[in-house]
Design a protein that fits this description.
Length: about 190
């Protein structure tokens, strides 16, 4: 649910397609507004719309949707769903993550809604009952909370953040939006 992360998704997809055999790619969820309980206010809605226009101008990624009325901007359900997909598929679910981003930023769907999350999981070949069970798993929740904490320890103050691990542990490579070309050039120097 990070607009800059969605804006950079095309750059990451380019790297995956062109350099996926050279590097191992994964992602960690940073968690935005993980404890929000109230709907987005009119003031916050205006702020988000301005932010999304800025991301759109910088990245070229289209943001077609408005913030849904009554929407609670809490990324925990969507992040839990991504972790459930990781658990069920045994691999980083880049496609599912991107589909969630599109559903929210381009179509205005509430990706905190469990029915929507389960329906989208089934689009990726995961049985609804298996998905729901994984989402409700205390182990998935514990891993998700650990991942939020780990993301902050890496110094990921700007999202998206790109980390690199050359065998001596992850370190911050880039904070904020960067193009695939810049990432490729920076990786070559590691």
């Amino acid at each position: 649910m990070c607009s800059w992360c969605f804006g950079m998704s095309r750059e990451i997809e380019t790297l995956l397609a062109e350099d996926g055999d050279r590097y191992h790619f994964d992602f960690a969820l940073g968690g935005i507004n993980v404890d929000a309980e109230r709907p987005v206010s009119d003031r916050a809605r205006t702020y988000l719309q301005r932010l999304w226009r800025s991301v759109e101008e910088t990245t070229g990624t289209q943001f077609a949707a408005q913030v849904p009325t009554g929407f609670i901007y809490n990324s925990t359900p969507a992040c839990r769903a991504v972790h459930a997909m990781r658990e069920l598929r045994g691999a980083p679910p880049f496609g599912y993550l991107h589909a969630l981003q599109q559903a929210f930023f381009q179509h205005g769907h509430d990706i905190g809604a469990s029915d929507l999350l389960a329906g989208m999981a089934s689009d990726f070949g995961v049985a609804r009952a298996d998905f729901v069970a994984a989402c409700e798993s205390p182990a998935v929740e514990a891993r998700l909370r650990r991942e939020f904490a780990e993301s902050r320890r890496y110094g990921t103050n700007a999202l998206p953040s790109v980390l690199v691990d050359g065998g001596d542990g992850p370190r911050l490579l880039a904070g904020g939006y960067v193009s695939a070309a810049v990432l490729r050039e920076t990786l070559a120097t590691c």
